[in-house]
């Protein structure tokens, strides 16, 4: 996970037309996606930023532009005052293995054969590769990890903003189509059930406000692009002996750190 201070921030200029407003809405979704991914990853680099007024203002402005109630993240910033409690809750509920109380992996919410699971991972990887992104190295997570999917959505939204700012309508539409397809086929299908599972496991816990913000953004995003949200509750898939073929994190890595490297990959390509 890269430095959160390099997150795209809302523009300060005024007097935008409708085309520019759509671009600013895309940038707002990128800001919020990156923030959500960073919170779920528990990145230590956030420790000094979480309670600062600048970040809070940035997130509130992004909520406004993304058509989310501005007070939605208020409870989250209250919990961020104790980032250790947030990290402990993440470790407790999300864990460091594929199957935990609230697994942050898309495949765990899909009743499918191992072959189909592999196909799902390949499809997600295909989305990443199409935009020049890869998850590799000892700190990489599995392609269907919650943080990986949020960071990918961040990059798509920010690239849409860049195309809009350059008046590149074809590229902007490509990014919107990719967002629509990825939400429809992946993120929007399982994340609502993940949020429900976390809230049910620890009502009022440190992760609940984070799930509220992520859920609100996902709903607004899907509403904008005409994507249907998945069920609020999905039973986890059955564990079978073939699960050894579906692993968590990079192969042959030691202790895998939650949080992939998509944001760093984006910055290396100048998508700041």
- Rounded to the nearest angstrom, the distance between the terminal CA atoms is 14 Å
Q: What gyration radius follows from the Cα positions, in whole Å?
A: 18 Å
Q: What is the count of DSSP helices, taking H or I runs of 4+ residues? A: 9
- Strand tally is 0
| Estimated structural class | mainly alpha
Write down the domain tally. Answer: 1
Strand content: under 5%
Write down the CATH class. Mainly Alpha
The overall average pLDDT, rounded, is: 81
Low-confidence stretches: 1-16, 244-272
Q: Looking at this structure, what is the CATH superfamily?
A: TorD-like
CATH topology: TorD-like
The helix/strand order is HHHHHHHHH
Shape: globular
The major sheet is characterized as: none
> What's the helical proportion of residues?
40-55%
CATH 2nd-level architecture: Orthogonal Bundle
Keywords:
single chain, 272 residues, mainly alpha, TorD-like, 9 helices, 55% helix, 0% strand, globular, disordered N terminus, disordered C terminus
